[in-house]
Design brief:
Largest sheet: 7 strands, parallel
CATH topology of the largest domain: Rossmann fold
CATH architecture of the largest domain: 3-Layer(aba) Sandwich
Structural class: alpha/beta
Number of helices: 15
Low-confidence stretches: none
Radius of gyration: 21 Å
Order of helices and strands: EHEHEHEEHHEHEHEHEHEHEHEHEHHH
Shape: globular
Strand content: 5-15%
Distance between the termini: 16 Å
Number of strands: 13
Helix content: 25-40%
Length: about 375
């Protein structure tokens, strides 16, 4: 069986690329197609595969400003010749699923999210855009939405990475989706020996508005508790300007430093609405709990009162109450219980479920 894997862009090793890595383990001879690939930022496993880029990578500054060429990506995907492949797996968050396949081929889309910038996050992205992008977005987004829905009809089966994403697939594409949770490298974060817990809380992730780091900074500036912030983004300068002296900004850190911070923090604070959210599970795999806003993927990964605390309003008061709850209820939390919980999301489980799902559809 000849297999093609289509991913929107391969520029680093984040959640979507971790899924590609597991698919590469399942299909070691698969060919990979993407708009732009930066091999030095990818794992050795992915780079072992033949990677073909669309013409987007050859456009002026295409390897750096690829997202600016979003209106051309449907055309770029449809120009890929995949007629020789028996199985096509598209990994969708940016445009990826719109390839044209052999009529006899099986096309399965693994959806991390319908494109946020033209659907649920459209108004947020537009409000933060420069004047030219703000002017062009309404013109560009209409045909992109039409293409996005019509290309969803070409896919034989859809897998969503969470129930939350499955509900948005149904809302925007009018397609039913099965749910297979993405992989978490549990072993990479598990500690051989218990790590002493420090007194600080942790925020880790992009410093952009929809992830709500401002809520965390505001809350900890008021309560005076130690907070470490890991990550970069457009909001960093403003956040640092408003932060109290109890808050430390580390920017991007090495994997070893990240692993250390996960294991020794008092808890991760996760204030945004995410499609799934790998970081909370990585922290739980490290043996630490999570304080999360009770919406989106966090509802499927954080068990209130057992692996973390959920708060139900994106306000400083609600987050502060959740911190107080954690310090009372989860002070003696078992690291083993946390790791047992995270084992449900392991790479091995992901591979087993994907293989079972695809084999069932090949037979049918």
């Amino acid at each position: 069986m000849k297999v093609a894997i289509v991913h929107y862009w391969l520029i680093g090793m984040r959640g979507g690329e971790k899924v590609i890595e597991e698919l590469c383990r399942i299909y070691p001879d698969a060919d990979i197609y993407t708009h732009v690939a930066i091999p030095e930022n990818l794992s050795e496993l992915i780079c072992k595969h033949k990677i073909t880029e669309t013409f987007i990578s050859r456009l002026p500054w295409g390897r750096k400003l690829y997202q600016k060429y979003m209106p051309l990506m449907p055309m770029a995907l449809e120009m890929l010749d995949l007629t020789d492949y028996d199985l096509v797996i598209s990994s969708e968050s940016g445009p990826a699923k719109g390839v044209i396949t052999n009529p006899a081929a099986l096309h399965i889309c693994y959806c991390h999210s319908p494109m946020r910038y033209i659907w649920d996050q459209y108004h947020t992205y537009r409000a933060q855009a420069g004047w030219l992008t703000k002017l062009l977005m309404p013109i560009i987004s209409v045909p992109l939405r039409i293409w996005d829905v019509s290309s969803a009809a070409r896919v034989d089966h859809i897998i969503a990475n969470s129930n939350f994403v499955a509900s948005r697939v149904l809302k925007y594409w009018r397609r039913e989706a099965s749910v297979i949770y993405p992989p978490v490298d549990v072993d990479a974060f598990a500690q051989a020996d218990p790590v002493p817990v420090s007194d600080y809380y942790l925020y880790a992730g992009e410093l952009v508005s929809y992830k709500r780091p401002d809520l965390v900074i505001d809350t900890f500036t008021k309560n005076g508790k130690p907070l470490v912030v890991i990550g970069e983004g457009s909001e960093r300068r403003a956040l640092e300007a408003s932060a109290g002296s109890n808050i430390s900004f580390l920017g991007r850190v090495s994997f070893d430093e990240l692993r250390k911070r996960y294991a020794e923090c008092r808890a991760l604070v996760f204030p945004g609405v995410e499609d799934f959210g790998i970081i909370p599970l990585e922290v739980m795999a490290s043996g630490r709990p999570v304080i999360a806003y009770a919406k989106g993927g966090a509802l499927e990964t954080v068990v209130d009162g057992k692996t973390g605390i959920l708060f139900h309003s994106q306000s400083s008061d609600a987050l502060d109450m959740a911190i107080d709850r954690l310090e009372v209820e989860l002070i003696n939390l078992s690291q083993r219980d946390l790791r047992d919980h995270v084992s449900r999301f392991s790479g091995e489980k992901f591979r087993c479920e994907i293989i079972k799902y695809i084999e069932g559809r090949m037979i049918n």
